[in-house]
Amino acid sequence: NSGTGGRKRKSRWADDEPKPVVQLPDFMKDFTSGIEFDPEIQALNSRLLEISRKLQSGMLLDDRPEGARSPSPEPIYDNMGVRINTREYRAREKLNRERQEIISQIIKKNPAFKPPADYRPPKLHK
Amino acid sequence: LMLAPSVTPATKVVCLTQVVTPDELKDDDDYEDIVEDMRTECGKFGSLVNVIIPRPSPDGEMAPGVGKVFLEYADTEGATKARQGLNGRKFGGNEVVAVFYPENKFSEGDYSG
């Protein structure tokens, strides 16, 4: 917008619609919509919260005793010879997948839901 | 001074505050662009009689009302619509605050607001 260029340019007015005179703060909108009270969404939200907490806490994600474990898949190693798909890694991946899945479901029910920054919409093709 | 826009009685003159910076007004091309943008957009609300955008003097001295835009409408109806419609809109990234401006002050060329 230096003004030194051509004379034809876009108006400085933003295109957005004029705001209503009284505006509720963002956090209030969730309550007014009522959709947050949908029991299904509440269940999804609380599970999402639980998973996020687990992932961030750094605690052991797979604490099942050895006897209760199912057989491990074939090990995968990186080029340094370190195993990638450790039990812990797989547990984390599993939670991550569930987390993404839950977010997708919430979005489907409530398009106004703002997903966390690290959420990636599922690809349409495999 | 009028602090709350809602308390000010409706007049034919709407004042947009916090719209333009003195820097933008110095450049003639920029200035013309701004006037044109104002005419186009603000004319949608009613019959626009006059658009006044105070500029800093060429020596860089600040004049009263720099940064504001004054819109005079033919009637208070147009001015009222404009005040409502423009308040909160964004102009060049700035969030516009639109208030009514006293007609007598405006006609005297007093933009100190």
Explain what the structure shows.
The complex is a heterodimer of chains A (126) and B (113). By secondary structure, chain A is mainly alpha-helical. Chain A has a domain at 26-61 and 74-109. Chain A has three helices and no strands. With 113 residues, chain B is an alpha+beta fold. Chain B has one domain: Alpha-Beta Plaits (2-Layer Sandwich), CATH 3.30.70.330. Helices cover 32% and strands 21% of the residues of chain B. Chain B is globular, with a radius of gyration of 13 Å. The chains are: A mainly alpha (126), B alpha+beta (113). The A-B interface holds A 1, 3-4, 7, 9, 11-14, 16, 18-19, 21, 23 and B 24, 27, 29-30, 33-34, 37, 40-41, 84-93.
What kind of oligomer do you see? heterodimer
Number of strands of chain A: 0
The CATH topology of chain B is: Alpha-Beta Plaits
Helix content of chain A: 25-40%
Radius of gyration of chain A: 23 Å
Please summarize the sheet with the most strands of chain A: none
**Mean pLDDT rating of chain A:** 78
Poorly predicted residue ranges of chain A: 1-6
Q: Could you tell me which chain pair has the largest interface and how many residues each side has?
A: A-B, 14 and 19 residues
